[in-house]
Amino acid sequence: MRKVYYIYNPKTRTYDRIYPTVRQRALSYLRQLFVGMGLGAGSFILLLWIFGSPSEKDLRTENSRLLSQYAILSSRLDEAEGVMQRLQQRDDNIYRVMMQADPLPDEQRLATANNARYNELMDMANSRLVIHTLQKMDDLEKKIYAQSKSFDEVVGLCKQHDKMLACIPAIQPVSNKNLKQTASGYGMRVDPIYKTVKFHAGMDFSANIGTPVYATGNGRVKQAGWDGLYGNCIIIDHGFGYVTRYAHLNKIEVKVGQNVARGEVIGQVGSTGKSTGPHLHYEVRVKGKIVNPVNYYFMDLNADDYEKMIELAANHGRVFD
Q1: What is the pLDDT at residue 98?
Q2: Distance separating alpha carbons of residues 229 and 248, to the nearest angstrom
Q3: What was the pLDDT predicted at 7?
C-alpha cells in the first residue's frame, strides 16, 4: 500500500495531507531500488560462499580428479623405477660381468635436473606435486636412455665375444715341461738384491736360457726392446683392456706393431736387466690395473694343476728380479 503523509496545521487545527513532488518520488523509488539490489546481491554472495557456484563445483571436482590421477601416475612411476633398478642390477652384475665389462658409471644413469623448467611451474596450484611427478618422469627417461645405450654396448660385446675370448690371456707363457720351478708369485716379496720387502707385480718362471716364451693371447706388440730394469722386454696389447709384459728375455723374436696369436713364440727366456738368474717375469694388466697372473692360465691347467699353481704362486721362495 502506498504510504500517505500528513502535517499538522496549527491555524486550522487540522492535519493537511502532503503530496510529495516528482523529484521526491523519484528519489524514494531509487532508494528502494538500491536497497533491494543490495539485499539481493548480498544474499547471492552469501549463497555462493556457502554452496558455491556450479562452475566452482565442477572445478573442484575436476581438481580432485586430477590430483587422483597424479597420485596414480606417481605410484606407477615408483613401480617403473623399481623395474629399472632391477634391470640396472642385472645389467651390471650379470650381463656386463659375463662380457667382462665395467659397470655403467652412476653419473651416466642419474638425470640432471632442469631447474629452470621446474621454476616455471612454481605458480601452479599443487606445484609441489606436479614438480615432484615431473622430476620422477625426467629421472626415469634419463635412466631408460642410459640403459638402452648400455644394452647396445653389451650387444656389441656379445658380437665380439669369440674375438675377446681369443685375446684374453689364458695360457702360461712358458710350457710346464720347460719349467724348473715357479720361483715366486704375485704379492709382497723380499727383493733378491736390495733385501727389502716390496711388491712383486707378476710371476717369475724359472727356466733355462733359450726356453721359448709364448704369447698368452691374441694381440698386437706394443713394445719390443730394452726397458731398464726389465731388460729385454715385450709388451702385448690384447685389446679389451688386457695387456701382458714378458721381461728379462734373452732374445726377442717379434717387432713393434706385429700381430701375434695365442701360443706363438715371441722370445726366449733370459736373465737381462735386474735379474739374478734365468727366468721369465710375466705380468698381466686389466684396464690399467695390475692383477695376479695366476687367474689367467685356465686353458693350460686342469683343476688339480690349477690348485697346485695357486699354491706355488703364493710361496715366499726365491725372487729372481
Answers
A1: 75
A2: 8
A3: 75
Separation between Cα atoms, residue 204 and residue 312, nearest integer Å: 11
The answer to whether residues 294 and 309 touch, using CB atoms and an 8 Å cutoff, is yes
Which residues of the chain are under the pLDDT cut of 50?
316
Cα-trace Rg, the chain: 45
d(CA 248, CA 230): 5
Taking CA atoms, 80 is separated from 73, 141, 206, in Å, by 10, 11, 58
Question: What pLDDT shows up at residue 117?
Answer: 66
Helix, strand or coil, per DSSP, at residue 162:
helix
pTM metric for this prediction: 0.59
Q: How far apart are CA 1 and CA 319, in angstroms?
A: 130
Burial code (b: 16+ CB inside 10 Å, e: under 16) for 292-313 equals: bbbebbeebbeeeeeeebeebb
| Grid cell digits, residue 205 | 718362471
Distance of CA 211 to the CA centre of its chain: 47
Residue 202: per-residue pLDDT: 85
Residue 304 CA from chain centroid, whole number:
40
Residues in the chain, overall count: 321
Q: Report pLDDT for 14.
A: 81
Q: Which residue has the cell 724359472?
A: 206
Sign of the C-alpha dihedral, residues 117, 119, 122, 127?
Answer: positive
Number of H helices, E strands in the chain: 8, 14
Q: Which three cell numbers stand for residue 209?
A: 736360457
Residues 6+ apart with CB under 8 A from 182: 203, 204, 205, 206, 309, 312, 313, 315
Within 10 A of 112 (CB to CB), how many other CB atoms are there? 9
Q: What pLDDT score was predicted for residue 192?
A: 59
Per-residue model confidence (pLDDT) at position 277: 84
